[in-house]
Write a structure and sequence with these properties.
There is one protein chain. By secondary structure, this protein is mainly α. 83% of the residues lie in helices and 0% in strands. The chain is built from ten helices and no strands. The longest helix is centred in the first third of the chain and has 47 residues. The N terminus is likely disordered.
Length: 234
């Protein structure tokens, strides 16, 4: 036996037709507005996609230059030819200039800091590490090392308060015991150069608490022993 159709079901198609009619009527009256909005959405979609592929292309080109510079930099580590350093510097600087927003450019800043330090151009090394730190995030694994290296630069310039600040910032990046021991040693060494043996001993002890290297531990103990001997001789 066929199911009896209710009045509500009979009226349902009319409601759909009415709704569709209203939509078509609105569209015909607001055609220009709809075309404009559709064009804007389409333009945003195209620009977003274009920017993504442009960014991808830039990153790829930047990585190519970075690889060439890194190959040259690796050669430097095995030679004493300063020309190789300069080749690497030129490539890294070209990369930063052409593709400043890429990840490769960020790494180039860090590597330039290392190269300039090895060349004895401390001010340029400082600027490169600072540029890296200005662009990098706290979560970047190289951030702690950049602060540590910056501390070495300031130590070489005898700007001891800045060196201490940099070593301290490096130590707060949560990089583990090994790097913590390195930073405490750096701070202890700076205090020693500032002729503050008590503070130097304090940080050498902190370094010894963190180190897992027996040789480093012996060297620190010897250093602390020297402080004690000097104190007794006064």
């Amino acid at each position: 036996m066929a199911r009896k159709i209710t009045k509500v079901e009979l009226k349902e198609p009319d409601r759909i037709h009415t709704f569709l009619g209203n939509v078509i009527d609105y569209a015909s009256k607001n055609r220009k507005k709809i075309y404009l909005l559709s064009g804007i959405f389409l333009l945003i979609f195209i620009l977003s996609g274009g920017w993504y592929f442009y960014d991808l292309s830039c990153e790829k080109k930047a990585q190519g230059i970075y690889s060439s510079a890194l190959d040259s930099y690796k050669t430097v580590n095995a030679t004493t030819d300063s020309k190789e350093y300069k080749d690497a510097v030129n490539l890294f600087e070209e990369l930063i200039k052409k593709y400043p927003q890429t990840n490769a450019a960020l790494l180039a800043c860090y590597n330039l800091g290392n190269i300039y330090f090895n060349l004895g151009e401390i001010d340029k090394s400082v600027n490169s590490y600072k540029e890296f730190l200005n662009k990098s995030s706290k979560d970047n694994v190289l951030t702690s090392l950049a602060y540590y290296s910056l501390g070495y630069c300031y130590e070489a310039k005898k700007e001891y308060p800045r060196a201490l600040e940099s070593f301290n910032k490096s130590s707060t990046q949560g990089t583990g015991k090994f790097y913590l021991a390195m930073n405490y040693q750096g701070m202890a060494r700076v205090y020693e150069e500032m002729n503050k043996p008590d503070k130097a001993e304090e940080y050498y002890k902190k370094a010894m608490e963190q180190t897992t290297d027996p040789l480093t531990e012996r060297l620190i103990k010897r250093k602390i022993s020297t402080f004690h001997s000097l104190a007794k001789s006064k």
